Amino acid sequence: xxxxxxxxxxxxxxxxxxxxxxxxxxxxxxxxxxxxxxxxxxxxxxxxxxxxxxxxxxxxxxxxxxxxxxxxxxxxxxxxxxxxxxxxxxxxxxxxxxxxxxxxxxxxxxxxxxxxxxxxxxxxxxxxxxxxxxxxxxxxx
Amino acid sequence: xxxxxxxxxxxxxxxxxxxxxxxxxxxxxxxxxxxxxxxxxxxxxxxxxxxxxxxxxxxxxxxxxxxxxxxxxxxxxxxxxxxxxxxxxxxxxxxxxxxxxxxxxxxxxxxxxxxxxxxxxxxxxxxxxxxxxxxxxxxxxxxxxxxxxxxxxxxxxxxxxxxxxxxxxxxxxxxxxxxxxxxxxxxxxxxxxxxxxxxxxxxxxxxxxxxxxx
Lengths: 141, 214
Prior knowledge:
The complex is a heterodimer of chains A (141) and B (214). Chain A has two helices and six strands, in the order αββββββα. The termini of chain A are far apart. Chain A has a four-stranded antiparallel beta sheet with strand order 3-2-5-6, with no helix packed on it. Chain A has 141 residues and is α+β, with helices and mostly antiparallel strands. Chain B is mostly helical. In chain B, α7 runs antiparallel to α8. At the A-B interface, β6 and α2 of A face α3, α5, α7 and α8 of B.
């Protein structure tokens, strides 16, 4: 019986191993924002982030209501972001991150304004069909 | 509904590219005889319309977005072959310029949307010809979009089954049929109504202008 208090003490000590503790601290993170072309956020959708050179995701979760993901890169290199919605929308992109420097993270983003790309596409279509029309005209002659 | 790069396994996109290449060759055969100076500007206009439609995202209930595609209009006016070729070009441009859809996924997207979508629209309009022109065209456009959407959902949903790690975790698109089929089809029921209305408008315009036989 005299061992009982000691046993209880030991049990209490091991029980704390199952307790989840919360540490709160301030930190800087790279914020990745995903959105549809019309600006609508890619909200509450699943994502996986793979550290440079890893085939196992280092971070999984869901975007927040504004389509954001907070990334705390702890190694430099090309990280990979996969995000998807149930209906097959999504991205699979590389991000260049620097450990401990969240502001230095970059993604190869399109710099050209969307309207310019849109017009460029229309120009390509009409240009190609214009060439075809010219070819047909010459062939006829 | 274009599938982006990185969502499809090579077991899917390589055969799809193979089939699409054969289909493009088939569609291109006899093109020179078919095209003339009156057809080219019309085809250019509707191809541009399909391109523009694909980039106008409409917010849908449930926090997702969708867009009309214009394949049914192309197919009903110019036939399946021309529609398939024109829409494949549209998909290529959208992938290169906007990352909407992908290059690896181009074969699957072109087959599901351009070829199957176009063929269903043309076939169904013929089948429903007795229902009246507007009804036949509207139903053809609506159903062709649903069939294309179903194919896309099936291709996405099969990925976890055919491409996964040893522990079973998926390598590419991770969600199965039970998720993809309703997630892709339900929004397209709504988009299909818009697609049908738009196709009827374009069809009626084409009829009025004498682009298609009465």
